[in-house]
Amino acid sequence: MTEEQIKEKVKGALSPARFAHVEGVVAEAERLAKRYGADEDKARLAAWIHDWAREWPADRLEEEARRLGVDRELFGPVAVLHGPIAAAKLGQEFGVEDDEVADAVRYHTTGRPGMGLLERVVCLADAVEPGRAYPGVDRLRQLASQDLDRALAEMFDASLRDLLDRGRPVAVLTVLARNECWSRVRGGRSR
User: Fold this and answer.
1) Which residues form the HD domain (predicted)?
2) Overall pTM surpassing 0.85 (yes/no)
3) Which ranges of 14-146 does DSSP label H, i.e. alpha helix?
4) 114 in a domain, yes or no?
């Protein structure tokens, strides 16, 4: 599939508001990829696909996650299952056979330890695209242009605080990703 065909397929699967978010993530992922030296084409591709299954009903997400063998202990809440499901279906649904793109799609919501550059770019782009509005997002946008790992670490902190304040479940992967990002920042290895 061409990028335009992928865009149209994703557009057909999402509400106008969710698709507008995806367009914002595509633009931000491309900008961050250019800034940090990630593959811009792969960043756009992962960004187009990342929320393809986001609006599926919970029962469909759960059924598909079971069928695909998604580890619920690591990914946790139903709301994050759209990432690993879309990643598992990249080849079948979009003709994309690329492990980097698959990982960026799979972990865009949760993060994970050992995230590659493309994964970090897409994960952060999802959190700071221009349509996002939540306390602290302007600071994260500013940080995103200066220090990718610090921006991710602070984004994970904000996300975890929000989930805990609302009594929501937290994906184990997010805690592990957060801790690793802060280790990179404190160890002077951040980008």
Assistant:
1) 18-129
2) yes
3) 16-36, 40-49, 58-68, 72-75, 82-88, 99-106, 117-128, 137-144
4) yes
